[in-house]
What does this fold into?
Amino acid sequence: MTNLPLSKLQEIFGERLQENVRMTNYTTTRVGGAVTGMISINSSSEMEFALTNIWELDVPYHILGSGSNLLISDSGYDGIILHNRSHNIRVITKNDPPLVIAESGAGLGQMAQLASRRGVSGFEWANSIPGTVGGAVYGNAGAHGTDVSQILQSALVMTREGGTQLLSNEDMSFEYRSSRFKREHKSIIILEATFVGQKADPEDCMALLHELTEKRKKTQPVGPSFGSTFKNPPGNFAGKLLAEAGMKGVTCGGASFSEKHANFIVNNGGATAQDYYCLIRKGQKRVKEMFDVDLNLEIELLGEFEDVDQA
It folds into this structure.
């Protein structure tokens, strides 16, 4: 039984509000229970409208992009999922240096490919990251030795307290896989981001993009997963520690740590969110016991999970 004002939300959002939506088709792990409601967001202006009303009604909510960094419990979530599908991207090559302006729901791969085809370098590394611009800015996503902090010029954001505002790169206070807002657990919504690139030959950009993508494919498993599960601890690698702790191939239900890369948990078929959670806690416990290192999640947990003793 939900306490959400669904009739009021239906009045405001109409057919855009879907009720009792199972999340298995909206997460890259293909697990997750049902959420009370989901609203599709197709532009930054729609996001502003939705948030204004959600905040006014004081309704619990969560922003969903590609679903790559989110584990929703099997029991689901009694709140509203705002499915961010705002994906407009503009590449401004006349500017010096060239700019790429992307709405927060745009895929990183989509942005990287469009910029590269237009001869704007600096985005090639992002092609193999299965996330969206909004999540990437919030969490300072990165690969191949670079990250969002090195290319972001500014971000248009919205907060409950301050409304809509334009923040600079410095305002975000980026750190490894983190921004000030992520560290402070602040409720901030990225609406749009402006990135700075360099002018280059489109063929060179695409060649580098394909080279980096192929390199990543060789080291990462196929199949439903988050991508990386844990952040790399200072001076080390989460995958290396997990492998040395004997976690490769360790299974719980339908999920297992990948034999190819231990920082990936793969759905082998029929996995549940609790299976993933079981492996997350088991991996953290083993690494702590063997190396006295705390592995921190790169993903978010939503809903209730059962904590059981991890042997």
Notes: The chain has nine helices and 18 strands. The radius of gyration is 20 Å.
